Amino acid sequence: MKKFIIFSILFIALIQLITIDTEAVILSNPKDEITASDNVKGILKRSCYDCHSNNAVIPWYGSIAPFSWYVRSHINDGRKVLNFSTFNTLDKEKQKKAFEDIEESIVIRMPLSTYLWMHRDAALSDNDKKALKEWIKSQNQ
Q1: What are the angstrom distances between the C-alpha of 59 and each of 68, 76, 94, 123?
Q2: How many CA atoms lie within 13 A of 1 on its CB side?
């Protein structure tokens, strides 16, 4: 049993050396950030920005492997799919597609249920979804 405990401690210590690169905050031009009302921006920041912007807030467990691998890979993947911090750099056709994807995502899967385990305040209320849908509709005109 003593060997198992020593091995476990050593294993946990060693996996801390394996990292996935993600910068929590990446400086970006404010002009590149998505344009929205304060209400909509507040919803996006509360429910989406940790994975879909350059302003991720890494939680305490996001620095401890193996949890850090999961958290940081989600942030990297989220930024690849949609990054609100660089939204205005997209051409109009890509922005239109992004708005369609946002609307579909808020109905089907976002924020992810695994994210909501630790971030219950990120859940979208019916009013939040309505505000986002109205905003998206106004952007696609």
Answers
A1: 9, 15, 31, 17
A2: 0
Alpha carbon distance 105, 122 (integer Å)? 14
Chain-centroid distance of CA 88 in Å reads 18
SS3 139: helix
CA dist list (Å): 47 to 11, 14, 82, 110, 130: 35, 33, 14, 8, 14
- For 74-114, the pLDDT digits (tens) are 888 888 888 888 888 888 888 888 777 777 777 677 777 77
Residues 6 or more apart whose Cβ sits within 8 Å of residue 36: 44, 135
> pLDDT tens for residues 79-89?
888 888 888 88
Domain assignments of the chain as residue spans, ordered by start: 2-139
> Which amino acid, one-letter code, is at 126?
D
